[in-house]
């Protein structure tokens, strides 16, 4: 598995405002979107393209276009939705699927409670969006779900991650092609499984507590 921790000062600057508990909800939403666009640039470094011939006003030349099947963006409900616009802004022709993951309170295992994805993901590059890589349980389950559907290349994009979360994804990835892109790698988890220093509950800060 390839892990990329973005080291750009603009990302760190935006993350600092995002982490601040005084940052109001509209600013928080906007920053998640902006951060996502910056992370998407890094995450799509190996997006599949094919050559295409075009004519400029001056001459014929060769460029590239995204290969078919087009990339699939999969925000994990609910907090991943806050990242969707930022990603679509950079890759407007990508398709979008949805996965809802929640912890089963009896088994404590992550389960899929909602799914809207193509029946087969054969040959697809998938980009999974989940802002907080904490224990990694639900993201690992989401990645396995996509491989079980036939995906052969999965990139997960998270605003913040922890060493524990990275290890959980590494284990889930095995020898399959997984790339993990993080805005920052934080210290770890507190006893309530919140990322430290983190930014609190991303879903609540995006959408309130309803
Ligand atoms: N999910 C969040 O929203 N925040 C955390 O710190 C951990 C998981």
TrEMBL record:
Biological role stated in the UniProt entry: Catalyzes the conversion of uracil and 5-phospho-alpha-D-ribose 1-diphosphate (PRPP) to UMP and diphosphate.
Entry-linked NCBIfam families: PRK00129.1, upp
Enzyme class: transferase
Encoding gene, per UniProt annotation: upp
PANTHER family, A to Z: ADENINE PHOSPHORIBOSYLTRANSFERASE, URACIL PHOSPHORIBOSYLTRANSFERASE, CHLOROPLASTIC
Family: Belongs to the UPRTase family.
Catalytic activity: UMP + diphosphate = 5-phospho-alpha-D-ribose 1-diphosphate + uracil
Membrane spanning residue stretches: none
Pfam families referenced in this protein's UniProt entry, alphabetically: UPRTase
Annotated metabolic or biological route of this protein: Pyrimidine metabolism; UMP biosynthesis via salvage pathway; UMP from uracil: step 1/1
Domain Phosphoribosyltransferase: 7-209
Keyword hit for Nucleotide-binding: yes
E.C. designation(s): 2.4.2.9
Taxonomic path: Bacteria, Bacillati, Actinomycetota, Actinomycetes, Micrococcales
Recorded GO MF terms: glycosyltransferase activity
Record comment: activity regulation: Allosterically activated by GTP.
Residues engaged in binding 5-phospho-alpha-D-ribose 1-diphosphate: 78, 103, 130-138, 201
Protein's UniProt name: Uracil phosphoribosyltransferase
Positions annotated to bind uracil: 195, 200-202
Cofactor descriptive note: Binds 1 Mg(2+) ion per subunit. The magnesium is bound as Mg-PRPP.
Cofactor: Mg(2+)
Protein keywords: Allosteric enzyme, Glycosyltransferase, GTP-binding, Magnesium, Nucleotide-binding, Transferase
């Amino acid at each position: 598995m390839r892990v990329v921790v973005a080291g750009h000062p603009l990302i760190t600057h935006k993350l600092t405002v995002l982490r601040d508990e005084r940052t109001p909800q509209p600013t928080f939403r906007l920053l998640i979107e902006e951060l996502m666009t910056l992370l998407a640039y890094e995450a799509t470094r190996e997006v599949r393209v094919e050559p295409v011939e075009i004519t400029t006003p001056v001459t014929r030349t060769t460029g590239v276009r995204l290969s078919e099947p087009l990339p699939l963006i999969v925000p994990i409900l609910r907090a991943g939705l806050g990242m969707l616009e930022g990603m679509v802004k950079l890759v407007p022709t990508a398709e979008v699927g949805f996965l809802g993951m929640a912890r089963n309170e009896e088994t404590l295992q992550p389960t899929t409670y909602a799914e809207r994805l193509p029946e087969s993901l054969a040959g697809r590059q998938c980009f999974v969006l989940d802002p907080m890589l904490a224990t990694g349980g639900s993201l690992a389950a989401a990645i396995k779900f996509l491989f079980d559907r036939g995906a052969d290349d999965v990139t997960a994009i998270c605003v913040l991650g922890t060493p524990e979360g990275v290890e959980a994804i590494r284990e889930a990835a095995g020898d399959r092609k997984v790339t993990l892109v993080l805005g920052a790698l934080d210290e770890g988890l507190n006893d309530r499984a919140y990322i430290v220093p983190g930014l609190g509950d991303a879903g609540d800060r995006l959408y309130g507590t309803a």
